[in-house]
UniProtKB/TrEMBL annotation:
Belongs to the 5'(3')-deoxyribonucleotidase family. One of its GO terms (biological process) is deoxyribonucleotide catabolic process. Transmembrane segments: none annotated. InterPro entries: 5'(3')-deoxyribonucleotidase (IPR010708), 5_3-deoxyribonucleotidase-like (IPR052419), HAD-like_sf (IPR036412), HAD_sf (IPR023214), Nucleotidase_putative (IPR009206). The active site is at 6 (nucleophile), 8 (proton donor). It is an enzyme of class 3 (hydrolase). Keywords: Hydrolase. Its EC number is 3.1.3.-. GO terms for molecular function: 5'-nucleotidase activity. This is Nucleotidase.
Length: 186
């Protein structure tokens, strides 16, 4: 199968790192990011949040560790003969730092299979690349992709606790994701 995988919150354990950095920068004491729209969590404008990320992109994208089990899970998928295509909401300008992070962490990837949706819909890239299953952490993307008929595995997070739409399976670990994909493959 051709499997699409998001990066932040799925492969990169970005949010705990970002929580610390954002609390320091905005002088807040937020305990948990409970909304994907982080500017709302930190009570700042969308522009202020975007400016902070743009000015600090390298540090914010290189600092996180991989999500527990992500590297091993991706290796298992590849060993079982699946194709892996990373589709992230990061911008094309962040490609170099993203590929360096994947390499630094030993996460298997091919440069041409790391795709950057930026502000566009990931669904366009999912269709263009013939993705058959998607692994995501953001409910809005998960819902759009599932509505197109693809199974989506949603990695559980503090900011994605809404009720699940049809076609989305909540997973609490990469082990659960792998078992779910193996069940589809039959």
């Amino acid at each position: 199968m051709r499997i699409g995988i998001d990066i932040d919150g799925v492969v990169s354990d970005s949010y705990p790192c970002w929580l610390t950095e954002l609390n320091l920068h905005f002088d807040r004491n937020v305990a948990v990011i409970d909304d994907y729209e982080m500017h709302l969590v930190f009570d700042v404008s969308r522009d202020a949040m975007n400016d902070y990320f743009v000015c600090n992109a390298e540090r914010l994208l290189m600092a996180p560790k991989p999500i527990t089990g992500a590297k091993e899970g991706i290796e298992t998928l590849l060993r079982e003969g699946h194709e892996v295509i990373y589709i992230t909401a990061r911008t094309p300008e962040e490609k170099d730092v993203t590929v360096r992070w994947l390499s630094m962490c030993g996460i298997p990837h091919e440069h041409e299979r790391v795709l950057f949706a930026g502000v566009s819909s990931k669904l366009e890239l999912v269709k263009l690349w013939g993705i058959e299953v998607f692994i995501e952490d953001y409910q809005v993307n998960a819902r759009l992709i599932a509505e197109s008929g693809l199974p989506v595995f949603l990695l559980d997070a503090s900011y994605n606790q809404e009720e699940l739409s049809s076609g989305i399976t909540r997973c609490h670990s990469w082990d659960e994701i792998i078992k779910g994909i193996q069940a589809i493959k039959g």
